[in-house]
Amino acid sequence: MIGVELNEAYFDQRAGTYAKLTWHVWYAERLVELAELPPGASVLDAATGTGLAALAAARAVGPSGGVVGVDISSGMLREAEALLAESGLDNVRYQKADVTVLPEFAPESFDVVLCSSSVLYLDAAPALAAWHRVLRPGGTLAYSAMREGFPVAMRVFRECAAEAGVPIPDPMAQLGSERASRDACERAGFRVERIAVDVVRRPPLPGDELWRQAVGNPLHPEVPAAAEARYLARMAELGDDPGICDMPVLFVIARK
After folding, report:
1. CA-to-CA distance for 119 and 124, rounded, in angstroms?
2. Which of 15, 17, 53, 63 is nearest to 33 (CA)?
């Protein structure tokens, strides 16, 4: 996992364009739809980013419910506040907080905890423990997780890095399969009710652009420049595969 400080800087940098990607919007709204939020529910949106899931949740729970979106990134929260102002909703507030600890919230404060698309940046065990603590008995946890080993472009990057002597763990190894999510949730005291599967379709990018994205990701240690040629060659072999950037995803719905 990367540290809170580096995490914040990374997401501050991404904040301005995050909500402009249509797949981010779909991903968040699909999670909220599958969570089946009841009117009047109190919701915590963990790692809210620009508040895409928070806004969808606020519409779902209605004026008698409420949503708190938390994130470590001040930049993301500024963008979230701007989108909230445009939405006309008045049942959302945002707060800066580390979603793997959440000391700001008392036990059993929420009916629902959501986490859309962010578990790859979190250490699963403390995050799940924190979410379990703030949920009321019978409360719902709903999160989305990219399937382990995807997207293909990043799997190839990790393989090339390993060949260069720099092993990089798959960040989705903790939650990126049905079995892994069930086991992790059960250890944290949750019972998984259902797991829906889908695919986020993303257009393929040139190999050199994918390389720049990979080496610029703070989740990744420094990889020798010599690995770039190997990576570009492997990506050229896959050049006709339209799914090299697609993300198979799991939507996990669990109960405390």
Report:
1. 7
2. 53
- What's the one-letter identity of residue 113? V
Taking the alpha carbons at both ends of the chain, their separation in whole angstroms is 26
For residue 121 the two structure tokens come to: 């940046």
| Residues pairing with 248 in the sheet | 199
Whole-angstrom distance, CA of residue 178 vs CA of residue 85: 38
From the list 247, 236, 235, the residue with the least C-alpha distance to 159 is 235
Secondary structure class of 167 (helix, strand, coil): coil
Q: What are phi and psi of 203, to 5 degrees?
A: -65, 145
Cβ atoms of 41 and 65 closer than 8 Å: yes
Whole-structure pTM over 0.70, yes or no?
Answer: yes
Local structure of residue 148 (DSSP, 8 states)? T
**Cα 128 to Cα 184: distance, rounded to the nearest angstrom:** 8
- Structural tokens at position 216: 């610029």
Q: What is the DSSP letter of 175?
A: T
Query: CA-to-CA distance for 191 and 212, rounded, in angstroms?
Result: 40
**Cα separation values, 47 from 162, 163, 191, 209, Å:** 30, 33, 22, 27
pLDDT tens-digit profile of 33-82? 999 999 999 999 999 999 999 999 999 999 999 999 999 989 999 999 99
The set of residues, in sequence order, having a beta carbon less than 8 Å from that of 136 and lying 6+ positions away, is 108, 109, 110, 111, 256
Q: Are 250 and 149 in contact (CB under 8 A)?
A: no
Quick one: the chain helix, strand, coil %, rounded to 5?
45, 20, 35
Cis peptide before 151 (omega within 30 of 0): yes
* Per-residue exposure over 142-166, b if at least 16 CB sit within 10 Å of its own CB, e if not: bbbbbbbebbbbbebbbebbeebee
